[in-house]
Amino acid sequence: MNISRRTLFRGAVGLSGAAMLTGCSGFTGGGGGSDSGGGDTLSMVSWGQDSEQSAFKKLVQKYQESSGVTVDLRFVPFAEMFTTIDAQLQDGSAPDIFRVDYTSLASYSSADQLLDLSDQMDDDLKNDLIPAFMEAVSLDGRPYGVPHQTDTTATVYRPDLLRQAGITSVPDSLENAWTWEEFNEVLTKLKGSLSGDVAPYSYQWQKAGAYRWLNWLFQANGRLLSDDLKSAAIDSDAGRRALTTTKALFENKVVPSNSSPKSGVYSSDAFVGGKTAMAALGNFTIPELNTAVGSRFEWQATYHPQDVRAASDLGGNALVINKATDKADQAGEFLRFMMEAENQKAFCEETIELPTRRSVAEGKLNLSVRPDLAPVFTAQATTLKPEDVAQVTIPGFSQINTELQEQLEQCFVGGRSVDDALKGIADRVNQIVSA
């Protein structure tokens, strides 16, 4: 079983445009083209697992009944989504509305392909959005989408294995989260208690998730990019502390040796398979974990360890409007409807995702699976800072993510020194941001 983030990076999709176009029958857009469906029809395209498709369909039906506007909602596999959207934006047949992950949004807004929503977002929505997610959809201070939902990771654990190691207290709030030093003590105790090939911990930085390593950098109060986002800032004392600390996880053998960034063994696989006592996993894995683990063992969630500060990783997706649409006002009205507090709450509860509106995040979120875990993941998501988000939503971030994967792999298991890895990341980042 491979449980991975629904919102992968566009750069990780390694298929040709021709293959995408021939594999997506029925994927036609609006945007003023011949398939737009008339003046009272909006076209929208998204990907989505079953629960997401169900939630989208329910809200679209609700909107149609209240507005009289038809929404032609179509779903495609994620692997087909963006190559096809790119081609359709070029030929003028893209849909009026589409879904995009935050780390890819800037590639469209910087190419002037998305509608500026400054005049489409009312004050009630703007003032209620968590600042980090407003940053996630913005370019040069102007919003080019609405932050529909988010997801993030927290630390899941097996209480039975922690008790066996003499660990009886687990943080019950962000304020009480383990420090890096305390977390290292927990890992050491677990290592001394666990038998066979069970490791204390695994982290979800495999493949396209390599960027999640930045949690450690941000916890150390470091930066990937300079304040103006125009040069690398990772080759620093904070960068060295973060990379030294994570490299030590492999050196001290407290994580599986096959859980490195380029490994095909995901953190979720190891935890479900009983190979780790703890793991950094996303709220989006909760349904799969719940089913896969079943009654074999109990599992709970707590907060990520913290150093100078708390941090988390940016996940989730925005809804955006094609700039070429001739139905900007109708599309804007639909996006505002999707972002209404009660609608965002309903979507997140069914899909096991997290809200971006303060009023929803601060209320009770009754997730359809393991609602007891909602407070942990929701609180962890609040540790995202706008300045963190700005660094992972620049145009070309997928290239940086690929470089992180390569350099972290070489540092963790390939013998590369911390200093050389930091320099390698910095040099490549400088090339990418200056291109």
Explain the overall architecture:
With 435 residues, the chain is α+β, with helices and mostly antiparallel strands. The chain has two domains: 10-149 and 316-363, D-Maltodextrin-Binding Protein, domain 2 (3-Layer(aba) Sandwich); 153-313 and 391-434, Periplasmic binding protein-like II (D-Maltodextrin-Binding Protein, domain 2, 3-Layer(aba) Sandwich), CATH 3.40.190. It contains 19 helices and ten strands. The protein has a five-stranded mixed beta sheet with strand order 2-1-3-10-6, with helices on both faces. The protein has a three-stranded antiparallel beta sheet with strand order 8-7-9. Strands 4-5 form a two-stranded antiparallel ribbon. It starts with 16 loop residues before the first helix and ends with a helix.
Number of domains: 2
CATH topology of the largest domain: D-Maltodextrin-Binding Protein, domain 2
Net shape: globular
- Top-tier CATH class of the largest domain: Alpha Beta
- Give the name of the CATH architecture of the largest domain: 3-Layer(aba) Sandwich
Total strand count, please?
10
Uncertain residue ranges:
1-37
Q: Approximately how much beta-strand content do the residues carry?
A: 5-15%
Compressed to H and E, one letter per element, the order equals HEHEHEHHHEEEEHHHHHEHEEHHHHHHH
Distance between the termini: 39 Å
